[in-house]
Amino acid sequence: MKGDVERVLFDEPAIHRRLDDIAAQISSDYRDRELTVIAVLHGSLMFVADLLRRIPLPLKLDCVRVASYHGKSQSSGKVVFNEVTVPDVADRDVLILDDILDSGHTLAAIRETVQTAKPRSIQVCVLLSKKKQRAREIYPDYVGFEIEDEFVVGYGLDFKESYRNLPYIGVLRKELLEQSSE
Ligand code: IMP
Ligand code: MG
User: Does ligand 1 lie within 6 Å of residue 105's CB atom?
Assistant: First the structure.
């Protein structure tokens, strides 16, 4: 598994240090409000678990499960909600947590769907944001790290459902991506 990673971008201590910063920022911004977190599964699993344990505020946690990739490394643009029920977030201060912002399709679709439940506010937090032109306009309120437009795995992020359990985030070897699109 390790040999499939071309280079490590963020090791475990670097991720945890950055989570300390984001958690402090979120805790300060939401100090007088009750936070409702909506986690986008499965990619955000490690991120959510590690981030929320650093936020000493009363909060609720809901999850949505979406798919847009279907095993390829480019977003298809069609976002399918597997967890169909939209969490009941009427009048709540919602923070959507996702692993990575790429084309923007996923987060735009989730934000629109959550909006229909009439929350008081919606903010977006991503661990990673790719520096690129997006198909949909999404400006996250909290970003862990900005990265180049490369395919990364680990710390929850997958390629064809593998590599999620790597404790670090690294760039997947290009040959592996190319093989899969043949
Ligand atoms: P978007 O809809 O194109 O913004 O893609 C968002 C989703 O695609 C993320 O939640 C990830 O599941 C997946 N994704 C995008 N880029 C990567 C990557 O570099 N590695 C692993 N998954 C990715
Ligand atoms: Mg994925």
Answer: yes
Predicted confidence at residue 78, as pLDDT, reads 73
How many CA atoms are closer than 13 Å to the CA of 83, on its beta-carbon side?
Answer: 16
Q: Which residues are known catalytic residues?
A: 102
What residue ranges of the chain have pLDDT lower than 50?
70
- CB of residue 75 inside a 6 A radius of ligand 1: yes
Task: List Cβ neighbours of 124 (8 Å cut-off, separation of 6 or more).
Answer: 95, 96, 98, 107, 111, 138, 139, 140, 141, 142
pLDDT tens digits for range 37-80? 999 999 999 999 999 999 999 999 999 988 765 455 566 677 77
What are the structure tokens assigned to 77, written together? 């643009």
Q: Tokens representing 56?
A: 């000493």
Phi, psi of 77 (to 5 degrees): 90, -15
The pTM score is: 0.92
Torsions phi, psi for 44 (to 5 deg):
-90, 5
Whether cis (ω within 30° of 0) applies to the bond prior to 70 is no
Place of tokens 């997958």: 158
The pair of three-digit structure tokens given for residue 58, joined into one six-digit string: 């009363």
> Ligand 2: distance of its center to the CA of 103 in Å?
13
